[in-house]
Structures are given as structure tokens and as C-alpha cells.
Amino acid sequence: MKEPSPSHPITITPHPNRVRVELGGRVIAETWDALELREARYDPVLYIPREDIAADMLVPNPRRTYCPYKGEAFYFDVAAGRETRAAAWSYENPFPAVAQIRGHVAFYPDRVDIIEA
């Protein structure tokens, strides 16, 4: 497990706008409570609380990856009219430095339609 540092910063802040995730014209998620995770030089990632996601549209995918800063990522296919494989992920037991993202799910913006208002 690695800790964020000045050479690899990670910040998590409340996202100021409403976020809606759609696929195939169907709303997958909508929230005013997204968290924005910024990590080093990567693009920001929006994490949406599970309670703001249509859970019946997330199908567990067997894919797993490991991040030395966040822990093990679990993936989901999104089924909304059409299925998009491994379009979302979560850290079920994130490391303490990023514990705020527990209970949240992130979506790949190129696999769904993300609308910020």
C-alpha cells in the first residue's frame, strides 16, 4: 500500500454540480453528492454514491485490478438497453487515504454518457 505524497497527490472533494450518467437514453445515476478524485496527473474521476445509482443496471463483472494507492477495484457491466462491459468500477475496501470513496461507483466517460449540470 502506498500513501499519497507531494510526488503523487490524491485529493477528494465534493463535486459542486449535479451529475447524471446515461446509457442508451436511460438514466443510470443522478446525484448532487458526487465526489471528485484527483490523482497525480490523471484526469479527475467522479465517484457517485451507490444510493444514487439504478443498481439493477449494474451487473458484476469478474474483472479486478489493483491500485497501490486505492486498493482492489471491482468492475460492473452496465445494462441499459444495451450492455456495456466493465463500464463502471468501485473500491469496496479502499485504503485509508481514500476511504471517502467507499460506497461510491465511478463510470468510464467513454463507455457511458456523463452529463454535468
From TrEMBL:
Residues covered by the DUF427 domain: 19-110
* Superkingdom of source: Bacteria
User: Which InterPro entries does this one have?
Assistant: DUF427, DUF427_sf
Q: Which Pfam families match?
A: NTP_transf_9 (PF04248)
Q: What is this protein called?
A: DUF427 domain-containing protein
The root-end lineage is:
Bacteria, Pseudomonadati, Pseudomonadota, Alphaproteobacteria, Hyphomicrobiales
